## 1
Amino acid sequence: MKQSILILLFGLSIAAVIDGANILYIAGVASKSHFIWNRPLIYGLAARGHNVTALSLQVENNPPENVHFIQMEGVYEAIFNDPKSAQSDFFSMGKMSPFGMLFEFEEFCVNCCRFSLKSKGFAELMNYPADFRFDLVINDYLVGPCISAAALHKFSRPPLVLVTAYNGITTSTPFAGSFAYSGLVPNHEFDATEDMCFYDRVMNFFYNTWEHLLKEWYTFPKMDELVREKIPQIPYVADFNKLARVVLPNVNAAIQFSEPLMPNVIPVGGLQVVDSKPLPKDLQTVMNSAKNGVILFSLGSNVRSDTLGTERIMAILDAMKSFPDIQFLWKFENDLLAHPNMKLFITHSGLLSTQEAIWHGIPLIGFPVFADQYRNINYCTKVGVAMRLSIVKIDAEELKATIHEMMTNASYTQNMQRLSKVFRDQPEKPLDRAVWWIEWVLRNPDVTYLQSHAVEIGWLKKNAYDVLIFLFVAVAITSHVIVGVTYRIACKKHNGGKKLKNKQA
Ligand SMILES: *[C@@H]1O[C@H](CO)[C@@H](O)[C@H](O)[C@H]1NC(C)=O
Ligand SMILES: *[C@@H]1O[C@H](CO)[C@@H](O)[C@H](O)[C@H]1NC(C)=O
């Protein structure tokens, strides 16, 4: 009996090894929060028996034996320690127009590419034996087709799955063919709501067009140039985008402005929300003893609180002091949101924090700093689960009044609990869904049915801009001709009349 169980177990473990695929996971976005999001997916795949090689800017000690981190070292330092770079100062980025922010973002992507290519980690992967096979490549796509293109080229183009911790669906345009609906959805860097006036929509159209042109004419050629320095014979790097079978973005329709998705874009919003770890003892004690509730203050993992400046910090402390009964915690620790005594979350409105607050049903006061943080808080305000304040000038009185309103008016908590219920009400956990779709690609490595033809035909045709240009030109020519002919006829009559008169005279 024992023996047969042993044989069975042995058989199972062999089956797991055989079924386990060899997966390359590229996590090259220089942002801690993006790694926080990728982490559960890396481990989730490993838990299913896959052999995951994570080529990543951040690595972890003591991973399971089928997770192999290879670090692309020095990229964070190169990008954020450069005092001249706007990317090292999120507050100055917050003052930019969407044009500036979109450009700065593309520049950030190019920098991630440039410094990752220089890393020893990248060289290590490129030195893998020529016959080494990966069954699948997963790329955190936000920084574009750079390291992923090099890897796909080296390992004979295995199928590609794209993932992102971001919720801007239009960022999947180059590989899923997604649409930027300028009349409906504000660009992900645009501080606007769905109720855009005509002027907003004109600007939104320009932002979306600018973003597209930046990618096509600046980012991709630049990345191609950088990769080509290492691998001269590689095909144009942006063409590797077309290998993407499915895209898994951090999107959930219930918790953001709604917009249509392409069929191979599978929303896995909130996959980072895993069962929360038990709190450290001291925090647990503080949380348990706060009978009148706790308010959490956090600006996330990218913006350090010390960059706030004394004036802002004093204003925040001043506001906190006027609620002596309430326990305030100033900390980056989203696990606290799960505690029943947590009442309110004062946040920079980063996507992961916002999603976690919604998951746990905690209403928000948002201090958006830059980029998508505006749209996160704008959505939350719209559905009545949050109030928004300005980080540029923090006014203690205004903050006091806002905290008071949020703590006394039950509607925010009620709305948030309803939103939370809808966010959680899914057939499977977002992480399980992500893993299922990745395995779907492993099971169907050659299937391209879900991919949109939009990727092939490109932006101009897909949006029918060529047709619009043709119609515009046709209308312009026709009106020109009509006006010209009418004018001539009118002139002839007029002149003819004159001539007649002249003769008579
Ligand atoms: C698992 O990944 C590691 C690191 O890339 C590699 O050295 C090893 O050969 C892989 N194992 C299998 C069974 O493919
Ligand atoms: C609570 O807040 C909601 C949303 O701002 C508002 O409509 C409602 O009137 C407020 N209720 C009270 C009692 O102030």
Note: The chain has 18 helices and eleven strands.
## 2
Amino acid sequence: MANNRKVEKLLSEKNKIERELRNIRDNCNHSKQTIKQVILGEGCQTSTRWVCDECAAVVGYPNESELKKFLG
Ligand SMILES: [Zn+2]
């Protein structure tokens, strides 16, 4: 498969996946949350956030004491 066809296919799959994720997240009440390291954007930069256990959405920032507890 030519690269441009492959990219086109991947992008359309990505759109489909993102739409599905958004759908799940919109319907989730984020009742169970855990502090986790998440990857931000396209780079490999990670940050610590409250993440929903059900749908993996980033739901908030931990405060300083929560962060200390998480980092040990
Ligand atoms: Zn959720």
Note: The first strand starts at residue 33 and ends at 39.
## 3
Amino acid sequence: MNAPDLTTPHHETTQQLVDARTPALPIELIRADAMLPVLETIEDTRHRPLQDLRISVTDRCNFRCSYCMPKEVFSRDHPFLRHDQLLSFEEINRIARVFLKLGVTKLRITGGEPLLRKHLENLIEQLASLCTLSGQAPELTLTTNASLLAQKAKILKAAGLDRVTISLDAIDDAIFQRLNNMSVPVATVLKGIDAALAADLNPVKINMVVRKGINDGQIIPMVEHFRHSGIVLRFIEYMDVGTTNGWRMDEVLPSSEVIRRIHALYPVHPLEPHTAAETAQRWAYDDDAGEIGVISSVTQAFCHSCSRARLSMEGRLFLCLFAGAGYDLRALLRQNLDDAALQASIAHLWQQRDDHYSELRGQGMQPLRRVEMSYIGG
Ligand code: SF4
């Protein structure tokens, strides 16, 4: 894949930018009584159940990490979506309720940076009061860069948030500031992590995207910082999400190499997965210093167990992180249809799903269009 031309000025709105790459697909409105007999859960064409919904609440972020929201593309005057273009909390809540009726048990809030969405705790409170098919509250999690978490952790916990996953790609302050491209000091994120622990948003997980030659020298310092902390540090292979980051295969450090480097200094042994659909392979330090994980999105695709759907901030439904287009759920919402018809239409989409991009990538195939990570979350 050729690197994108980052020298051209980009004055499109995010809507235009994304529209240019990911057209909104209309969804056929399916009558509820045309639905197949309702099962406990629904499966796609590869027998994968629908279990997780990731909800992006904003296209804005206060970081400019080059693999997600490169500064050259998302400049200071970049016109992001207006507030009235975003799904309202009530609309998100309604869509989530329908997904729970289809077997979803876990809701993850993402962005952009989700804590930039005002009064996010109000949405959390609404989602926490919903029920899964088994009558329990859904598992409610949030992915954040933690720059605003110190002020928000307690409020989010009180609203019903269960836990957080924090993105942090370096522990060295100079390297971290260079990576986030906005001079945010690492101390700000560490305060957010402390606040998450104090608010009992456990287990706190930290995701580090590893790029060979960029931040792989931070693997051991990160390990040394978070051993014995109770925090689960996870290393993610650098992925070709979107088309603006100029991804190259030679910047991918395979998880096997990450484990080899850690094991040489701090011996580790593998752990059993919590669930069959778990994306991270779990490891524990032999000296009981805690747990780490690796997410081998490139070298060991896990499409076979992928149970995740993604909802964009403006109401498009993506059935794969690498999809070129999202289904226009907001258009359905505004047709005044009832929940049963909405549920039938979403079920119909999932039952036709065949996405398995990471497996195809391994066979050398590349779709022309891919949604941007900053638009849909990781
Ligand atoms: S490539 Fe698509 S189908 Fe495969 S694991 Fe990722 S999101 Fe799921």
Note: Residues 1-12, 14-21 have pLDDT under 50 and may be disordered.
## 4
Amino acid sequence: MNLSLSKLEHIQCPQSLLLVLNETDDAESLLKPLLARMLCDGANKPCGHCKQCHHLANHMHPDVTVVKPEKVGAQIKIDQIRALQKTIYTTPLCATKRMVFITSAHKLNEAASNALLKSIEEPPQNTYFILTTTSMRQISTTLASRCVKFSLAQDELSPRVLEVEVLFRTSIEGINQHQASVCEAVKRFTGFPLDDVLSAIQLYMHKEIKSNSHTMGIFKQSDMLLDIKKKVSENIPLNATLLLESIFIGFVC
Ligand SMILES: [Zn+2]
């Protein structure tokens, strides 16, 4: 069974999301569909017609706060986070939610990062934080650990990763159409290095989020995947079969 739209309506964007982007990605235009889906009042989100969608289309939604370096190469300073904190404890003006969008989160200086951490740890109700970065290594580990992480940054793709991605996509379809069990699907991947399989799954998610279809449902999967990739890079022994089973279950349920 596919993640249908009706199902997606019940899956919320995580309250704090950290998105890893490519240098060439334009964070604001990439996230527009996600913001629209979060804020839209229509039945079919984003409807494109309601007050929220109009504000977003005109780049002036009063309940979307963007925090970014004040000029190219500058850091995000604590004063900017203090100003943000004043805003987020007030009632949204027009929507039922407030969205905080911090671009270039790796530019947060230490004081700003610590101040933001407090807001993320005890967020006001209905306030959602979306942080973007092109450099995960420069984000404080504590701050990153409080967010659900999602990577849109693509690794160098080998032909084998591309091949495994196709295999993964057809396996998910096979399970969804009850042609194979999760166990049978996982067996198809035992001959490939785990790192390649993980990169292929990441590529699969990258394509899904770009096609705007299953955005909400795959955030948790992505967070798990990034943690597993980190363990693989640190040579921590893992049970590949069990890991793949849990990844598959997350995609098909
Ligand atoms: Zn709308």
Note: The radius of gyration is 19 Å.
